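ok so for the tutorial part 2 we go from a plain amino acid sequence to predicted structure tokens. step 1 is just haveing the sequence, like this:
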Amino acid sequence: MPSHPRGVAVNRLATVALTALAPISWGSTYAVATELLPPDRPLFTGVMRALPAGLLLTLLSRRLPKGEWWWKSAVLGALNIGAFFPLLFLAAYRLPGGVAAVLGSAGPLFVVGLAALVLGERASLRTVLAAVTGALGVSMVVLTAAAKLDLIGIIAGVVSSASMAAGTVMTKRWGRPDGVGPLAMTGWQLTAGGLIIIPIAALVEGAPPALDGKAFLGYGYMMLLNTGTAYWLWFRGIGKLSATSVTLLGPLSPLTAAVIGWAVLGQALSPVQLVGMAIAFGATVAGQLFAARAAAAQAAPDPEPFTSAEKTDRNISMDLTAGPVRP
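step 2 — the prediction. this is what the tokens look like for a chain of 327 residues:
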């Protein structure tokens, strides 16, 4: 018996709200890194975010990959963590923070295109406009007139967004092995991603830095909440929602960073930035509404007023008159 539409809508809203906590948490990364962590060690920070959290979640799930899931977990871990973190940090070092954030906000557009190719998720024009509007709003919040462009930084920022987008789509495409929950999947990916970053961090940054009490506090937050819990919620959301719906929550990250910068770090917000925040947040909400309507339309039963014989005749007629149908 089909679920009540109201109950389905409430469950979807709860899933969206929980998934949104991931980009909101990621918005705190800059403040935590600048206030608590050793300076100029972004790759070491990436390792400390991913590897301990991955090992902990894998231990809690008490599940290891089997068969093809060893290489699938490695691929997903590389796309979502191992390649994404270093490229993101490279973009952050080569570009002003606002430019890097704008390139990151283009992620939903990558997901829309990849989801159409790989998953068959056809995004409506309204959804695409919501993604573009969200990126526009983010640019109003983070860009400054003094922003300078760097080709290597731009390439790194674009590829990092594309890497995360591909990881999101392939996570949706491959799903999970039977009997394996999102906790184990998150643990496998974080572990693989952290292991990929270790040699890069050693080559670029050398030996690990000395850590004080503030650093342990910061890395503890990064590991448990900013990465372990956040990525678990993110991958859980991918399993329950469309890839496009999940990625449209991305603008919440730079918006959260701007709010924390104002509330905690004493950074002023101009009227243009406030308008940009309203535009980006409105686009995020609108994108979720469009995605919810699309999901409801797909889940709704097709009313069938025909008898069996009439249905057969109608299908034959459609087969004769309609063009090729994409599976």
